[in-house]
Write the structure tokens for this entry.
Amino acid sequence: MGGANDLGSYLKWIYETAVFLYELLSETGSLYVHLDSNVSHYVKALLDSVFGRDNLRNEVVWNKGYRGTARRRRFQQEHDVILFYAKSTDHTWNSTYVDYKDMSLARYNRVDEEGNRYARIKRRRTDGTVYYGRTYPKGKLQGDIIDVPIMAATSSERTGYPTQKPEALLERIIRASSNEGDLVLDCFCGSGTTPAVAEKLNRRWIACDLGRFAIHTSRKRLLGIDNIRPFIVQNLGKYERQVWQKAEFGEDAAFITRSYRKFILDLYHAEMVEGYTWLHGRKGGRMVHVGSVDSPVAVGEVRNIAIEFQQTLGTGKDAPRVAGVDILGWDFALDTNETAQQIASEAGLKVRFLRIPREVLEKKAVDQGDIRFFELAALSVAHQCARRELSIELTDFMIPPDDVPDDVAKAVRHWSDWIDYWAVDFNYRDDTFHNQWQSYRTRKDRTLLLRANHTYSKSGEYTVLIKAIDILGNDTTKTIQVKVL
Ligand SMILES: C[S@@+](CC[C@H](N)C(=O)[O-])C[C@H]1O[C@@H](n2cnc3c(N)ncnc32)[C@H](O)[C@@H]1O
């Protein structure tokens, strides 16, 4: 955190987020906000105003133990603060216990038939006779200091995500403030610790993050949990882009369109051209089309680009001169790549499809200039269907070479090394992708299956959607039609 203004805008954002979360929270719900101890006091005042001071249940200290670098001329910093608010006095609460330290265990000095420690207690019946009962150690009630050491560098829990929290910490919180079947939200999920623990504790969950790497890490981590229930990964897509567009360029429709295109063209290092409907810019001789924020680039759009291109080729100052168009889009309708390549080549035109990366919406990334447009990759799939048995095999995957950092390219031996993860929906119905089968690499096991089999229970015609996520974090999809007899 830099100067005073940074702190001001951060607190404004926290406040707005807190108001929103308060509205979303169920009457029996609780909010836990984990903060570095040098901002927690500001945020506590804000949250007091949103939740009401009486609803602060605890200022929890996460005692994470001493970490690495020694602090000079002050005590070592060993804790973070977690502010715990409830929406009402009816909030869900389960007392949790931690193991006794050895001292308190001393009185449990007997061992039962199963090897458990217990204490022998003298009790009196109503008729005055005496007997000895057993009490087992329940543990000490969890206090507002939670002792969970940060993960060791070699811990198997580590995902490689820089701010990852230990599962043991989230487990204490989720057990205390929810029951099985309850819904847990982490709106800044990072490596996915909260959804992973919620899943293991039989809670339902929603996890959000704006980072590509966070989503990628969380998705893989969740898939690694035994018997994970089905989940979907969704993006806010056009809703987020529309909000951004309005905030960035205002309300006037014509002005928005023009300034939006100019903004994207600048990031793509292209110049703007005037007087065309479908051709918006030029870069190194090739024309550039900028797809809108509202809808995926579809085949019809490519057809219009091709027509305008043919009509204007060589006609004036800004007219196309070489037979190439770069089509930039946020999303691409399924199979655009193949069908559109065909239309374009019939028109004598070479098209390239490039994805406008989500980072464009982030001021910081734009200011730093680290915006990369990735060309759509191409996935080849073979399939065989014998009666009700379908077998799908990935046969090739190509990432355009410009997109690949040199060291990565050198390490790749086989085309399948580009694929980090792939999944199949055997009965795609033009709505949500249902992850019915998947194969993915983990840190320990780098193998990836290239074949997937499926048995249909009914005959019919099915659309099969195959989604591959490459090691750069981009999705490539492909559909095939199968006829099951
Ligand atoms: C401290 S990390 C969370 C780490 C997480 N508890 C774990 O165990 O891995 C905070 C996360 O918030 C995300 N983030 C920051 N601002 C966000 C926003 N406005 N919307 C969604 N996610 C955001 C960041 O990308 C980052 O992954």
